[in-house]
């Protein structure tokens, strides 16, 4: 958890820098991630902070927290999640992750559970448009965000431009990492509408595939950028 | 009359062209329901308690406290007290509760008393493991290895090996089980949807007819998902006990500790050659661990076999989790041992390894011409002759580049497969068979074969697979699926088409055997103007559809392929970090059905190869006997930035196409480890003896030969 690159949300390094290389201290602040804000946010569970970066640690997080001194749980508490534009009211233990809330309690199963430790990106969703690992965000903390899952990117039976590019470039085999990748690419392209090959390679380092579809993923991301630019 | 045999090149409308996969949209939009995604009304969540010890006597199991935990609805003891657990991660108790969190809490409340016993979790040679951990494997002798070695003008000796790695399927092993009275439905993540139904029936003592197993989509298997596994029947028992459906998927740590391991293989190898590069002798003593059981005998020497040779293998029995078939079982490890030893011999001569391999190409046996052609093709793609240099540093500064090569083989053939093909009076077509799509593109090639047969486009075909209620088909392993389902579909579709021709012939004033189905029409082959549309033809069926069966047929498929791969790497001799610059792969696989998914298979295999060559290792702690990296943070898979540039060339056309279908899942994953290891040796002038080639091992190798690798 100490690696600098892990503090970047998947799919959205703004500068295309290789996430496997350590950034010099302070660089994160210049690029939108504030190391200081991260430290200030120590009261938030570290794992959530790691993933959601400035979103959860900034102003948005404050209203999602119980009042100072108030303790939620350990039993089920009312939680309302805004998912793909619709509010869902649930009774969940505060320890339930956003991923488990989606999959186990709402039957929204596009986001996959794989590593369950913020490493592989298969569970990627958007929180206020930014990519986040939903396995490492608590549902209770996700309440004040607009949550978008892969299902929210296009109506059933339709394909988002990114999903269509994944089909076109055969950027999937077993497909288990694919929804996470599609969401990560969607977030990445929002921040990098016209990425270079190198930026794609570096910027999508937060998602892992076992079948080995990266060749297609790279092409799909570049092609989706073109499709979206053409459509706009 | 339509013929079973594959159409000649000029008559193919779909075969050999490029198509996106038919299940691409449902997968890339997140709508595909994998077994892990199945949620049933009232479903409970199952979790297992597993042994924290690598070797222990289970003295007692107490589930009383767990049974009283909130939300718990069923508890099942899976292990008999008094017996020994043989690896950390072995399952002891399964339980089911209302939520995952409650199930996890309850699992922690199970009390198991262990008497801890001595363990061996180190991947060591038999002399270090000791007699009680060693089991003799095969020994062989051909020709006169001693005489040939004595008369050899150049000899080379080394120790080579590949460590234990895991499968790390992104979708964990597991299933959802649901009873309706005495009928059981299981949604399992399986490579063997037909076969596991029988396993559930047997384990649960339920008539086979009462069991339905379903795998619509599955998130990776790679050889680790052939069986129902202990947790399959356990999940069904929990569901029975609770009277409710249960989902029990392995958590990531258990997945990596228990549900997949590729055995290690190591070998001391001595080789002899003439100065002109002629290989004359091979002598190897190999060992490896597949966990507590023995494990198979490795195919050594691999592909390129000296006439005079001796081999001896010993299995080392350890308390690492049990091995499972891993994509091309034993081949990647044996490629490392053989190709790296040969590369070292070439360097000792000294000789360009490309020239050395070509000099000895006849030793590859009956496919030597193919290997020759593939090596020359790959060399051209990577510009071998322009880039290759003798071993060792060639640049100023710490970054050194190198080239390496490897060749490989695999069988193929076809799994057993039964197919039903139905032509409906409205013109729609269904193909049904009980195989499964692991992500290789099986659905797509089934539709392609049926479409080719009927002269219809791929979207006109509905493919029904992934259910044990469809006609039985075999497990998807050993690159046998395309042969099995491709040939059974071809035969079923042809049989159905001939029945259709019989119904349609009078309307075209022709005999059935004079008809053909091309371009959405049924027409007279000799006079294509006499034609009716496919829809009109099917309307002649009246109210009754045609269903015809077909089985796997050996005359439509083949086995035995060769491939050559070359890698270019750069190595930072100060940090030990290896980066892949480029890998080229030339592969033969008979008649290619869908060029897109065939190439994707090879690309994927190369990426998996980079991963096991550089990163993957199941690290075991000698003190505690536990796996140190049962997670995806420290069990590392390559990311997008790690893979380099790839080129793939499929050998197709005359000489290849007429062999029929041959599977492609395994062969291209065999060579990357060896090719990358050889490229690293070429770059730094010294062998890193085992894969994965970690920075620490690179630095240690450089240290052992201090002058090498430093310009």
What does this structure look like?
- The complex is a heterodimer of chains A (232) and B (711).
- With 232 residues, chain A is an alpha+beta fold.
- Chain A folds into two domains: 3-152, Ubiquitin-like (UB roll); 161-228, [2Fe-2S]-binding domain (DNA polymerase, domain 1), CATH 1.10.150.
- Chain A contains ten helices and five strands; from the N terminus they run αααααββαβββαααα.
- Chain A has helices at 27-30, 35-40, 46-52, 54-57, 59-64, 98-105, 161-168, 178-191, 197-203, 214-231; strands spanning 77-83, 86-92, 124-127, 130-133, 146-148.
- Chain A has a five-stranded mixed β-sheet, sandwiched between helices.
- In chain A, β3 and β4 form a beta hairpin.
- Chain A is elongated and about 50 Å long.
- Mean pLDDT of chain A is 79; it is low at 1-64.
- By secondary structure, chain B is α+β, with helices and mostly antiparallel strands.
- Chain B is built from 18 helices and 27 strands.
- A seven-stranded mixed β-sheet of chain B has the order 3-5-1-12-9-10-11, with helices on both faces. Chain B has a six-stranded mixed β-sheet with strand order 7-15-14-13-8-27, with helices on both faces. Chain B has a four-stranded mixed β-sheet with strand order 16-24-25-26, sandwiched between helices.
- The model of chain B has no long low-confidence stretch (mean pLDDT 96).
- The chains are: A alpha+beta (232), B alpha+beta (711).
- Chains A and B meet through α6, α7, α8, α9 and α10 of A and α1 and α16 of B.
């Amino acid at each position: 958890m100490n690696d600098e690159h892990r503090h970047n949300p998947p799919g959205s390094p703004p500068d295309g820098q290789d996430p496997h290389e350590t950034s010099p201290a302070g660089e994160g602040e210049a690029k939108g991630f504030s190391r200081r804000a991260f430290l200030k946010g120590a009261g938030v569970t570290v794992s959530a902070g790691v993933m959601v970066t400035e979103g959860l640690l900034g102003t948005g997080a404050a209203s999602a927290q119980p009042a100072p001194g108030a303790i939620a749980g350990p039993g089920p508490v009312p939680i309302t999640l805004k998912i793909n534009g619709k509010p869902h009211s649930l009774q969940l233990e505060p320890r339930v992750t956003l991923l488990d809330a989606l999959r186990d309690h709402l039957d929204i199963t596009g986001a996959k559970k794989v590593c369950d430790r913020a490493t592989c990106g298969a569970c990627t969703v958007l929180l206020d448009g930014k990519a986040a690992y939903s396995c490492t965000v608590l549902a209770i903390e996700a309440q004040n965000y607009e949550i978008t899952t892969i299902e929210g990117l296009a109506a059933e039976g339709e394909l988002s431009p990114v999903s269509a590019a994944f089909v076109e470039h055969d950027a999937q085999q077993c497909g288990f990492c694919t929804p996470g990748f599609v969401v990560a690419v969607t977030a990445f392209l929002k921040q990098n509408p016209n990425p270079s090959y190198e930026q794609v390679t570096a910027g999508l380092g937060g998602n892992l595939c076992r079948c080995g579809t990266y060749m297609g993923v790279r092409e799909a991301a570049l092609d989706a950028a073109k499709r979206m630019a053409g459509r706009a | 009359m339509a013929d079973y045999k594959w159409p000649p090149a000029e008559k193919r409308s779909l075969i050999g062209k490029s198509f996106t996969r038919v299940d691409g949209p449902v997968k890339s939009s997140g709508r595909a329901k994998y077994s892990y995604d199945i949620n049933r009304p009232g479903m409970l969540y199952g979790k297992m308690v597993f042994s924290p010890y690598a070797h222990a006597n289970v003295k007692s199991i107490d589930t009383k406290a767990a049974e009283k935990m909130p939300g718990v609805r069923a508890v099942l003891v899976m292990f008999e007290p008094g017996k020994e657990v043989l690896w950390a991660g072995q399952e002891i108790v399964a339980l089911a509760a209302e939520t995952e969190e409650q199930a996890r809490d309850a699992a922690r409340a199970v009390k198991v008393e262990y008497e801890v016993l001595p363990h061996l979790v180190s991947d060591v040679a038999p002399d270090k493991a000791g007699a009680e951990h060693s089991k003799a494997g095969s020994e062989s002798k051909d020709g006169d290895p001693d005489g040939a070695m004595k008369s050899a003008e150049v000899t080379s000796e080394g120790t080579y090996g590949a460590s234990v790695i895991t499968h790390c399927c992104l979708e964990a092993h597991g299933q959802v089980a649901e009873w309706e009275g005495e009928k059981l439905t299981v949604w399992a993540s399986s490579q063997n949807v037909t076969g596991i139904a029988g396993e559930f029936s047997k384990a649960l003592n339920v008539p086979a007819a009462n069991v339905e197993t379903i795998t619509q989509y599955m998130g990776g298997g790679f050889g680790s998902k052939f069986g129902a596994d202990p947790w399959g029947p356990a999940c069904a028992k929990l569901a029975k006990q609770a009277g409710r459906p249960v989902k029990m998927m392995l958590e990531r740590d258990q997945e990596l500790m228990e549900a997949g391991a590729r055995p290690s293989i190591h070998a001391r190898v001595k080789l002899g050659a003439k100065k002109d590069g002629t290989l004359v002798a091979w002598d190897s003593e190999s060992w490896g661990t597949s966990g507590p059981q023995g494990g198979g005998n490795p195919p050594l020497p691999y592909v390129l076999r000296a006439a005079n040779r001796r081999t001896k293998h010993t299995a080392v029995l350890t308390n690492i989790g049990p091995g499972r078939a891993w994509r091309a079982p034993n081949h990647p490890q044996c490629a490392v041992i053989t190709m790296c030893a040969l590369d070292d011999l070439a360097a000792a001569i000294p000789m360009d390894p490309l020239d050395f391999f070509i000099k000895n190409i006849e030793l590859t046996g009956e496919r030597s011409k193919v290997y020759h052609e593939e090596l020359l093709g790959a060399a051209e793609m990577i510009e071998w002759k322009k880039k290759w240099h003798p071993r060792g540093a060639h640049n100023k500064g710490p970054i050194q580049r190198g080239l390496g090569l490897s060749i490989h083989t695999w069988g193929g053939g076809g799994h057993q497969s039964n197919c039903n093909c139905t032509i409906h009076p409205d013109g729609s077509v269904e193909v049904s068979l009980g195989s499964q799509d692991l992500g290789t593109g099986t659905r797509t090639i089934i539709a392609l074969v049926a479409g080719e047969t009927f002269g219809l486009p791929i979207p006109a075909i509905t493919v029904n697979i992934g259910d044990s209620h469809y006609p039985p088909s075999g497990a998807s392993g050993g690159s046998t699926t395309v042969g099995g389902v491709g040939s059974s579909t071809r035969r079923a579709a042809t049989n159905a088409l001939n029945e259709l021709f019989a119904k349609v012939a009078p309307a075209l004033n022709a005999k059935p055997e004079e008809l053909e189905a091309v371009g959405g029409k049924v027409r007279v082959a000799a006079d294509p103007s006499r034609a009716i549309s496919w829809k009109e033809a099917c309307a002649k069926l009246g109210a009754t559809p045609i269903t015809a069966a077909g089985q796997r047929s050996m005359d439509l498929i083949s086995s035995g392929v060769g491939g050559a791969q070359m890698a270019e790497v750069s190595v930072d001799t100060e940090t030990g970090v290896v980066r892949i610059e480029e890998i080229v792969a030339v592969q033969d696989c008979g008649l290619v059905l869908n060029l897109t998914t065939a190439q994707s298979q090879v690309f994927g295999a190369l990426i998996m190869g980079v991963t096991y060559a550089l990163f993957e290792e199941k690290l075991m702690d000698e003190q505690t006997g536990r796996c140190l990296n049962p997670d995806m943070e420290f069990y590392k898979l390559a990311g997008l930035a790690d893979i380099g540039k790839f080129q793939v060339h499929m050998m197709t056309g005359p000489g290849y196409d007429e062999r029929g279908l041959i599977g492609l899942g395994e062969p291209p994953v065999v060579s990357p480890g060896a090719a990358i290891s050889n490229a690293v040796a070429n770059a730094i002038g010294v062998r890193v003896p085992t894969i994965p080639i970690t920075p620490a091992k690179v630095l240690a190798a450089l240290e052992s030969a201090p002058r090498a690798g430093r310009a």
